[in-house]
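I have a small job for you when you get a moment. Can you supply me with one protein entry, sequence and fold together? It will help me judge whether the discrete encoding reads sensibly. Write everything out right here, beneath this request:
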Amino acid sequence: MAKKKTQAKYFDPLARRPEEKRAIRRGGHVSAKVVTRFSTQLATLQEAGLPIVRSLKILEGQLRPGRMKMIAGAVAEDVEGGASLSEAMAKHPAAFDNLYVQMVRAGEAGGMLDKVLRRVADFKEKAEKLRTQIKGAITYPIFVILFALGVIFFITTVVVPQFEKIFRDLGSDELPRATQLLLGLSNFLQKHWYVVLAIPVLVYLVFKMVRRSARGQLATDRWSLRLPRLGGINRKNKIARVGRTLGTLIASGVPLLDALEITRNGVGNRVIEQALDKVKSAVREGEGIAEPMGETRQFDDMVVNMVAVGEETGELDRMLLRVADTYEYEVDIEVAGLVRLLEPLLIILVGGIVGFILFAVFLPLLEIIKKLGASG
């Protein structure tokens, strides 16, 4: 009896079409972490010499059920049907943004798709690492503040009213000013607690409304770069993003004007966007990058000088990536320093509030005890 030939089976994207196609078209978000992991694995498979369709099917089989799995299958199907990888990825902006697609397209045109995919993966990994570091550093003080506010809210709305009953039962005529202030705050929170919750929601909604207009976006973005301490961190973070994005695009073979446009669209700050528009206009007229960068006054002298050296030596991409490395390191250091500064300030603030509550509560009790002792 002849043995049947066995073939390696991979996840077949054609087996799950109509409903998943509708799910992909409905839109949605794919987390940066998932896209980063996908990019790293795809780059590794391509460096190993596997055909692109096989690589995509392997990754689809490994991905957990979800939007990214469906997108990977759809991309594999399109590439198997004759589309280029960049064309297939361009259909799914939820996972692959314009920067990603342009880099892949340049890699395909230059015959170095595996190298470009590795650059994309490295770019995504470093961007995700910086984002995680900033998010992790901010999470701790926010958690402490929310916890402290919750404890203070509980004390003023549950514990303090009990003491108010004690004061009334013991016949305290005139309470100290601090106690009167605390009791007034307690009564207000008990009756109008929803106002306290509504204030941050209202501030957020007003901020979103302001951000809807171009003038509002420009004003808030300019303000975010001028904040004490935080403004410097934000500016360095934006400069690092410009250097990382522009350097990676140039190294991948994307034309300079296209690279500037993609970088401009991904920087996330209208002030920096306007500066890059001026740089792009100067480059279109035949100038270099360094001089118009300096004229915008949005980039530090060190950045301008490093870019100038990169233009002179023909290593602009390496210099931009070095700028990104330097500023990402500085952002990491400054964020860690800010957290170390916030820790004692939060302790002092919370301790001061709790101390005031204890003082306001126990001061009248001490006076009542003294009166009872004197009368006895």
Observations:
- DSSP finds 16 helices and no strands in the chain.
- The domain at 122-376 is CATH 1.20.81.30 (Receptor-associated Protein).
- The first helix runs from residue 17 to 25.
